[in-house]
Amino acid sequence: MVSSTIKVLPAQPSDMEALARVEFAAFENNEFGLVAFGRPSEADIIQRAQTMGVSHIPGEVVRITKAAMIDLDGKEEIVGLASWSRFTAGDVVITEGKDKGRNLTGFACPELFVDGIVRGEELMKLSSGEKDYLKLNVLAVSPKAQRRGVGSKLLSDGLQEADEAGIQTVLAASEDGEPLYKRHGFLEYEKFILNLSDYRGGEGKGFSRHVIMNRPARATLSELE
Questions:
Q1: Which of 29, 35, 113, 224 could disulfide-link 202, Cβ–Cβ 3.0 to 4.6 Å?
Q2: What are phi and psi of 189, to 5 degrees?
Q3: Is 78 within 8 Å of 139 (Cβ atoms)?
């Protein structure tokens, strides 16, 4: 570990299975995920790898970056990922209704997915004020590489894109992730708490706190001239 460096690089199609495994490992003990999605099987990991980077919302452009730990021999091991979606104002339409226009087949608890994930997407869109925005879909770091600044590097890389374009950034933070995002200039827009024990499969579990955050657009070079 000491003799390795960590670089943030664009993810390649051949990286997707490794990225899926890192994502599942990072959230293995996340109670919200376990109730909404269920505990993943090997088939679930392969399926996730096949759908990574695929847009599920009209007007969405997805970009994935990886954090690679590179040893002295140049051998690469993926230890983190960030998935970003860029939206153009007016292009994003989130369907109203019980399922919000989603195919919810395969979710362990579709109701929790709608109340948590889809509700969060709606609030992030509202926080944008109908202007262009970059959304952080997921930020995941392998347990073996945590507390090494990997998450901060992945986050900073995406924020650079937003700053160069002069657009705002939005995300839904967990209680654990909120301090990291605040250090990078994100402000709370709205928060909501879900009682997992109210949902099928969540019996005996606690509360899941979700914080919708927005980082205002930085001025572009042309605006400063």
A1: 35
A2: -100, -50
A3: no
**What does each C-alpha distance from 101 to 3, 58, 60, 112 come to in angstroms?**
48, 11, 15, 15
The residue with tokens 């954090």 is 67
DSSP state for residue 57 in the 8-state scheme: S
**5-224 CATH choice from 3.40.47.10, 3.40.630.30, 3.30.565.10, 3.30.70.60:** 3.40.630.30
Nearest 5°: phi and psi at 66?
-120, 150
Comparing CA positions, the residue from 190, 198, 156, 161 lying closest to residue 173 is: 190
Query: Would you give per-residue pLDDT tens digits along the chain (225 residues)?
Result: 456 789 999 999 999 999 999 999 999 989 999 999 999 899 999 999 998 888 877 778 899 999 999 888 889 999 999 999 999 876 655 544 444 445 555 689 999 999 999 999 999 999 999 899 999 999 999 998 988 899 999 999 999 999 999 999 999 999 889 999 999 999 999 999 999 999 999 999 999 999 999 999 987 544 544
d(CA 64, CA 82): 6
Cα–Cα distances in Å, from 29 out to 24, 26, 34, 67?
Answer: 9, 8, 7, 21
